[in-house]
Amino acid sequence: MVDSVTSSTSSTSSTTSSSSSTSLSASYEMFLTLLTTQLQTQNPLDPVDSTEFTSQLATYASLEQQIETNDKLDSVLSSMDSLSFSTGVGYIGLTVEAEGDTLSVDSDGTVDGSWKYELDSAAEDVTLTIVDSSGNTVWSGSGETSAGSHSLTWDGTDSDGDAVSSGEYTLVVTATDADGDSIDTTTSIVGTVTAVDSSSGSTVLEIGDTEIDLSDVTRLAA
């Protein structure tokens, strides 16, 4: 079910570029006024040196080009923001996999997705630990030991079987080989996109209360 779509009319970068363009325009107007005044008040018997005049005209041309470049940059940034947002909207209703290790539990106890973890090589022992936002362990168990990708679906209860409170929960994967040496692991989250938000200037996908940057999406999951 689609929850919401929130768009921003301009990004921070676009706003900054627009401010720079306004500043350049003001500088250009001031330069033109000063140049005109200089030409009007120059001594006919001792006019402005042609070399200096040429240099001033070159400066004017450079300012004009900068203003035009900034205007075009504003247009490009605006188009990129719109394209990114439109791309994000296309993810609504789809199941995605994204870089990350944190999921949210909603007020009704629903976990906003599941985790995937990958072992670089086979392990002797794998421990999966879910911690709350304060770092307290709420659940712990054994994980798969074979190399490759594995999944963990959590029901939102602690080790005693009691429902946890709403909030963010992080999966910590600890894997060791037969010698007790650590094995590299990678964690990702999987869930269905319910909304998209670009009000902060970047496109963010929402899986329930869990937020992920569009750039962190690694694949569309089946």
TrEMBL record:
InterPro entries assigned to the protein according to its UniProt record, in alphabetical order: FlgD, FlgD/Vpr_Ig-like, FLgD_Tudor
Free-text function comment from the UniProt entry: Required for flagellar hook formation. May act as a scaffolding protein.
Family membership: Belongs to the FlgD family.
Pfam family, one: FLgD_tudor
Disordered: annotated span: 1-22
Positions of the FlgD Tudor-like domain: 88-218
Domain FlgD/Vpr Ig-like, chain residue ranges per copy: 100-179
A GO biological-process term: bacterial-type flagellum organization
Lineage: superkingdom: Bacteria
Full protein name: Basal-body rod modification protein FlgD
Coiled-coil portions: none
Keywords: Bacterial flagellum biogenesis, Cell projection, Cilium, Flagellum
Upper taxonomic lineage: Bacteria, Pseudomonadati, Pseudomonadota, Alphaproteobacteria, Rhodospirillales
